[in-house]
Amino acid sequence: EKTSVTLLGLGAMGTALARTWLAAGHPLTVWNRTPARAAALAAEGARVADSAAEAVAANTLIVVCLLDDTSVEEVLAGTDLADKDVVNLTTSTPAQARARAEWARRRGARYLDGGIMAVPPMIGVPEAGGYVFYSGSRELFEQHQETLAVPVGTTYVGEDTGFAALHDVALLSAMYGMFAGAAHAFALIRKEDIDPASLAPLLADWLVAMAPAVLRTADHLRSGDYTKGVVSNLAMQVAGTPTFLSTAEEQGVSPQLLSPYFELMRRRLAAGSGEEDLTGVIDLLVH
Ligand code: NDP
After folding, report:
1. Atom of ligand 1 nearest to the CA of 67
2. Region 103-127: what's the mean pLDDT?
3. Which part of the chain is the NADPH-dependent reductive aminase-like C-terminal domain (predicted)?
4. What is d(CA 182, CA 96) in angstroms, rounded to the nearest whole number?
5. Pocket lining for ligand 1, CB < 6 angstroms
6. What is the pTM of this model?
């Protein structure tokens, strides 16, 4: 007997999740503010509820995938959450997740928060490598893991309800730093007779080759010794920064994405950390 699921929210992500549960034979009740978005799923076997309250009443496991935390409050406020297992996959901040968990608890529900590390085309495609971070009650996670693993992988990151959102935002923040660097690289070749398509695979391979550096960073942070195993020290790297800034100027490219990072490197060096690599920048960011 497959666990019955209620899903609130049929946006791009909710619809993708819904399809996988239907395909796997889980009885599914859905609700969406704009009812038209449920029509295709009804044809695929979903039960369509007329209201969020009716959808919540239908099952114990309530998966929520709405736009933001405000919409979650709006939608759940009109439902009876007593004895429900609420799994909230809506992107939020750690503080919002913790507050929403407390809010749900006061209404008699158990609560698990999720952060989705996938885009809709990766849902239901295990080879794509997507997954969802979960945090909150471990017991609740374990009870529903099999059902939650149907659309996409599951990674439990702790009892603190805010940790799924924190991991989600941490990974995406690093991604934006990577995209910023790639944007600068493409800008540098813009005015030259260099095909972006010839730079792109070199760039992708280089980023992949450099990525494991984060493992040494973690080692530094754990030991407190930021000089361990350093290959390219900070003094050398800061000495190289004028080359990057001058090249940007030569190519008519704004240094605005690179400069703030270089500024932190210079400050760390000025504080006497020339034998470290880049780990010390983290100390300057945290206040
Ligand atoms: P969409 O914009 O496609 O869908 C938003 C959903 O929220 C719709 O069902 C919409 O209903 C509903 N909604 C918005 N405001 C309200 C409200 N006030 N009351 C009731 N329902 C409301 O977003 P996605 O499906 O793509 O994303 C859903 C969640 O998943 C978000 O938190 C997003 O950050 C997260 N996510 C999405 C990813 C993606 O690539 N798409 C990747 C990772 C996470 P209606 O149809 O009536 O407008």
Report:
1. 7
2. 98
3. 160-285
4. 32
5. 9-14, 32-34, 37, 65-68, 71, 74-75, 90-91, 116, 119-120
6. 0.95
